[in-house]
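Help wanted!
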Amino acid sequence: MQTMDSQTFKTRDATSYDAVTEQFDFFTERLTTPLAERLVSLAEIKASDSILDVGTGTGVVALLAAKIIAENGTVHGIDLSEGMLATATAKAEKLGLEEKVKFSQMDAENLEFEAETFDTVVSLFALLHFPNPLTALKEIYRVMRPGGSFVVAVGSRPPLFSASGLSHLVDIFPDLIRRKQGRQLVAPGFLDSLVEQYLPKTDEQEEADLASHSHNRTSGVSKLVRSAGFRLLQTGWQSHQAQIATPEEFWEIQRTFSSISRKRLSNAAPEKVELLRQKFFEQCRTVQSRGGNLVYPFAAFYVIAEKY
Ligand SMILES: C[S@@+](CC[C@H](N)C(=O)[O-])C[C@H]1O[C@@H](n2cnc3c(N)ncnc32)[C@H](O)[C@@H]1O
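Answered by r_m:
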């Protein structure tokens, strides 16, 4: 993307969250927490660490990290969305963590910190939003101290031909049969496909290149982390599948988390959204009447790296 396009994309991406921040936080606390806990454990945070959380959102990772550190440790969460940052700040106050954690509006591709400021940098589900992910990774490298650890996680299918990939295939086999029999709907693809069908795409770019390129981001992300100068220590993959009880909740969760659906629905005429919503509910009820279920698989591919 060109510089001008990048700025427009970033602003639109950040503001697309502002109207759904509350729902985002509600579903994140419920569904992202196990993946955020794994990320924090992989970062092996020490009590006195100064930590940066890039694309912090409503602060799920930053607040988990703040609970681990001592009085002399600090956490700084940065994000571009004002709505996300306001919620993150309110949560920190509610938890009594405001002395340890700070949130600021900042672009991951232009970090406003001195070189070698942080011991540890973490980032969950944000890298795929950046139009220039290598620029962001080089910025992260710059602001880290030598020997510091960096853990980044992105939504992805498991690595190809891996043990985790193979065991995942075995685990989801019964689901693949249910889907073929029309007894399971899977988020966010289900809403995205209806959106694709009923709401024509505009010229507006909805996803950054890295996200739209492939659903398996494992080798692409590892390569980028290495290109930014890091030494790769380890990679890992973790997933869990949420069962969603009602079509209403299934709708809310997808329109909140899916970048494509969130952006296209917020720009569409209300009558078109209503028509699409009716189609969505009809299909959910048909599947449920057959004894089927509504599911949202959550998966993260982790890269653990070191600045040396
Ligand atoms: C899917 S959310 C993940 C939030 C949080 N890390 C979590 O896991 O709940 C992606 C976040 O990245 C932020 N973001 C997107 N582009 C950004 C940029 N260039 N700089 C900083 N944050 C950005 C968005 O505003 C959003 O809060």
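OP: Thanks! One thing I noticed: The chain has twelve helices and eight strands.
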